[in-house]
Amino acid sequence: MHAKKIDKLATGVLYTIAGIIVSILASLILYILVRGLPHVSWKFLTGQSSSYQAGGGIGIQLYNSLFLLVITLIISIPLSMGAGIYLSEYAKKGLVTDFVRTCIEILSSLPSVVVGLFGYLIFVIQFQYGFSIISGALALTVFNLPQMTRSVEDSLQHVHHTQREAGLALGMSRWETIIHVVVPEALPSIVTGIVLASGRIFGEAAALIYTAGQSAPALDWSNWNIFSVTSPISVFRQAETLAVHIWKVNSEGTIPDAVEVSAGSAAVLLIFILIFNLGARKLGSYLHRKLTSA
After folding, report:
1. Sign of the CA dihedral 204, 205, 210, 216?
2. b/e per residue, 174-186, with b = 16+ CB within 10 A?
3. For the residues 131-158, what does the mean pLDDT come to?
4. Contact 72, 202 (CB under 8 A)
5. Residues 57, 48: contact at Cβ < 8 Å?
6. Under a CB-based contact definition with an 8 Å cutoff, are residues 151 and 79 in contact?
């Protein structure tokens, strides 16, 4: 009886802690949404921001965030896949491998503002890219690469060794077994990790203040010159993202409706991050069902 009472007490404590965590998260989400959604409209989502007049939108900032996300993933995914495959399938235990893993752990624990300052010194000044999308994307790659590499490595390691043995038994080389057997089997987990990383990239601000810039010049949608500062596909132009815009509006406060713009922008940003997080789990489950039923 004494053991059962302790078990019930421990279970109750755990449920209470879980309930507190869920309540805090739910309260935070509801507060942001209730405060910001009334200010969100189609005009707000597609309109151009204003520095001194009320009624501005977040259209350019929202596009910049999505475009920067795409460029960052184009750079990050091949690097993280290569590093994850190497650490999972080829790296032998030893000082070199331990050193690489230690470097990954250290990079993953760096504050984003430190990564931003590193990006400012290297990409903005040393490489002379200036405040631009490419500088921001490279800084975010440094910031997000450790997490994505670890996600890929863990996904590959969870594939049972019999899958590799089966590929080798069919006469495949080691590389062919990895590409045609191991990676497809781990694909749902890899995709989930990438989508979750996308939410982290989309909501990042500190690293982009020093690299991508704090201005959002008007875009000329008829201009497709990748080197033009007004081209929507140029990676060499400044690009204030939605997260940076929220920080800027709250820090400067030069527009009359700064509170409304900040609240609406925060609600939109939160919705996108929720979509990334919930979508990652749904997409991972869908891919898992498709691959297991194939």
Report:
1. positive
2. eeebbeebbbebb
3. 90
4. no
5. yes
6. no
d(CA 142, CA 245): 22
| Residue 104 near residue 84 (C-beta atoms within 8 A) | no
For the chain, domains (ranges, CATH) are 39-293 (1.10.3720.10)
Instruction: Indicate the angle between helix axes 258-293 and 242-252, nearest 10 degrees.
Output: 160
pLDDT digit string (tens) for 39-63?
898 988 888 887 777 778 888 999 9
> What is residue 221's predicted lDDT score, i.e. its pLDDT?
81
List pLDDT tens digits, range 217-268. 788 888 888 888 888 888 999 888 999 989 888 887 678 888 888 899 999 9
Joined tokens for residue 228:
């033009």
pTM over cut 0.70: yes
Residue type at 78 in one-letter notation: P
Contact by Cβ (8 Å): 268, 40: yes
First to last CA, the chain: 51
